[in-house]
Design brief:
The protein has 208 residues and is α/β, with parallel strands linked by helices. Strands 1, 2, 3, 4, 5, 6, 7 and 8 form an 8-stranded mixed sheet that branches. Helix 2 crosses helix 5.
Length: 208
C-alpha cells in the first residue's frame, strides 16, 4: 500500500501543476433586458497608452475578427468607423462624450459602440524570462444615450498558463492578443441574455 501511495503522489502533483489557468475576464453587466438579435456594433479603434506603436491597432483587429467569427453581432466595417471619426473630428475615442457617441452611432449606422484602451503591451523576446504581456479595458456603449451596458478588463502574460516543462507558455504577442480577444468577445455573450431587472424609481409621496 505504501509503494502505491508513493507512486500516485507524484502523479497528482504533476496533474495539479498542469491545470494552471490564465486570469479570466473581469466584467460588469448592467441590469436590463438582453440585446436584440442582429444588434449592430462598431469597434472604435482602441486608444494606445503603451510604447508599442501598433498595440491599439493589433487588439482592435483581433477583436473585430473574433466578433465576426462568433457572429454575436452585426459588426460594422472598421474603415467606415475610421472615416466617421475623422469626419466628426474625434481625436480621443476613449474620452468621447455621450453627444459624440450619439453622432458617431448615427454616422456609422450602428446601435452600439465599443471603445477601449490598451494600458500595457510587452512584445516579449527569445530569451528566457521575456514573456509577452498585455492589459486592456473595454466598454460596450449604447450609442443612443451613452449608457455603459458592459465593461471588462483583462491582463495577461505569456507565462500565465505555463506548467511543467514550459507547457502552456505563450511565446508571441500575436498569439497572446488572439487568446485575449477570444475570451473578451465570448464574455460579451452575456449581453444577449437578460440581466438583472431594472430598479423601478422610488415614488416620493407628497407631504400634506
Amino acid at each position: 500500500i505504501e509503494r502505491r501511495s508513493l507512486a500516485i503522489g507524484p502523479a497528482w502533483l504533476l496533474l495539479a501543476a498542469m491545470t494552471a489557468c490564465a486570469p479570466s475576464v473581469r466584467a460588469f453587466r448592467a441590469p436590463g433586458p438582453g440585446l436584440p438579435a442582429g444588434a449592430s456594433l462598431a469597434f472604435v479603434p482602441l486608444t494606445n497608452l503603451t510604447e508599442v506603436e501598433h498595440a491599439g491597432r493589433l487588439f482592435t483587429d483581433k477583436l473585430v475578427v473574433e466578433a465576426g467569427r462568433l457572429r454575436l453581432f452585426d459588426v460594422q466595417d472598421p474603415g467606415v468607423v475610421l472615416g466617421a471619426l475623422r469626419r466628426l473630428r474625434i481625436l480621443t475615442p476613449d474620452r468621447i462624450s455621450a453627444e459624440q457617441m450619439r453622432s458617431l452611432a448615427e454616422v456609422v449606422g450602428t446601435n452600439y459602440l465599443l471603445p477601449g484602451t490598451v494600458t500595457q503591451c510587452v512584445e516579449g523576446g527569445e530569451f528566457a524570462g521575456q514573456h509577452p504581456a498585455a492589459a486592456l479595458s473595454l466598454r460596450f456603449v449604447d450609442g443612443s444615450d451613452g449608457r455603459v451596458l458592459w465593461a471588462a478588463t483583462l491582463a495577461r502574460s505569456g507565462n500565465d498558463s505555463e506548467t511543467v516543462f514550459g507547457l502552456g507558455r505563450v511565446h508571441t504577442l500575436d498569439e497572446l492578443s488572439s487568446r485575449m480577444a477570444r475570451d473578451l468577445v465570448r464574455s460579451m455573450h452575456e449581453l444577449t441574455r437578460p440581466g438583472r431587472p431594472l430598479r423601478a424609481p422610488r415614488r416620493t409621496e407628497a407631504k400634506p
